[in-house]
């Protein structure tokens, strides 16, 4: 007759020790995946700044859809659009909100949820080539026609599968002209215009969250807050 054995009893101390090891292992896996993701998403330095035209082309408090070639040498394949709003002065410094038009879900182009004033289209010849400027009134923000993601006028996600707010562009002012800089990613914006507080991160790809538990599977590089 075969001998029988009863299940071993695990002490509370032993259980906690095992749980700690398991959590540590998961954290290590997460860190490893983030490192691999960072290597996979590494890219060369940002493209050259784009001359969007004189400041007078951007009325204060109004959004303008700016369409430009992000790489003039590549031609039409590099054509992009950005939503540009002149916020007026932040102290003594000009303030602009410049949102990427690309949805952060899979990269489809979004569109303003409001009228485009097509009769007021302006074409500016800048140092980076031709730029078209189309005034718009996105009273309800911006929407993605592909999968239904919605964003408010500051770029915050309000509905749909997008994992974060719309990406934003850095900018600079040179000799009275607005120059577009590199892209960065945003988790959330609190406040409006020149007074907005931006939770800013290094640029992430489409579909990648920048905070929360899901972000452990993607590279994360917070740059600044404020």
Could you explain the architecture of this structure?
- The protein is mainly beta and 226 residues long.
- Helices cover 13% and strands 37% of the residues.
- The protein has one helix at residues 12-41; strands at residues 50-54, 63-69, 79-90, 93-100, 111-112, 122-126, 129-136, 142-143, 150-151, 157-159, 168-174, 177-190, 197-201, 222-225.
- Strand 8 and strand 9 (150-151) form a beta hairpin.
- The longest helix has 30 residues, at 12-41.
Key traits:
5-stranded antiparallel β-sheet; mainly beta; globular; 226 residues; disordered N terminus; single chain
Q: What oligomeric state is this? A: single chain
Q: Which geometry do the CA atoms define?
A: globular
Number of strand elements = 14
Element order, helices and strands? HEEEEEEEEEEEEEE
> Percent of residues in beta strands?
35-45%
How far do the termini sit from each other?
A: 75 Å
Uncertain runs are 1-10, 15-45, 220-226
Describe the secondary structure blueprint for this structure:
Blueprint: H1 12-41, E1 50-54, E2 63-69, E3 79-90, E4 93-100, E5 111-112, E6 122-126, E7 129-136, E8 142-143, E9 150-151, E10 157-159, E11 168-174, E12 177-190, E13 197-201, E14 222-225
